[in-house]
Write a structure and sequence with these properties.
The protein is about 75% helix and about 0% strand. The chain is mainly alpha-helical and about 90 residues long. α1 (about 5-25) crosses α3 (about 60-85). The longest helix has 23 residues, at about 30-55. The chain is globular and about 40 Å long. It starts with a helix and ends in a 5-residue tail after the last helix. About 35% of the residues are buried.
């Protein structure tokens, strides 16, 4: 698979926005630029794995990718919070 410079920029942009949104929703603040990108990209992987299994499709454009990635990142942050707090939110 070939990953061009434009694709990398789009992935980082989507990860940044999705991670920032997830941080605002779950924690009330972001995690910094690098943290937001990492959370958003991992959230995108979670969403791309989970959503097809559930038959969920938000759309086909960049905004839908950001929404799906943000939902995946929220799921990730909730799981991390659940594990860290010993099963309590």
């Amino acid at each position: 698979m070939y990953l061009s410079g434009e694709h990398l920029i789009v992935i980082l942009f989507v990860g940044l926005i999705a991670g920032w949104l997830a941080g605002k929703i779950v924690r009330g603040a972001g995690f910094g630029i690098i943290g937001d990108i990492v959370i958003g990209v991992i959230g995108a992987f979670i969403a791309s794995w989970l959503f097809p299994k559930l038959g969920i499709r938000v759309g086909t454009h960049l905004v839908s990718e950001i929404i799906e990635s943000a939902i995946g990142a929220i799921i990730l942050l909730l799981i991390v919070r659940l594990v860290r707090s010993g099963g309590r939110f």
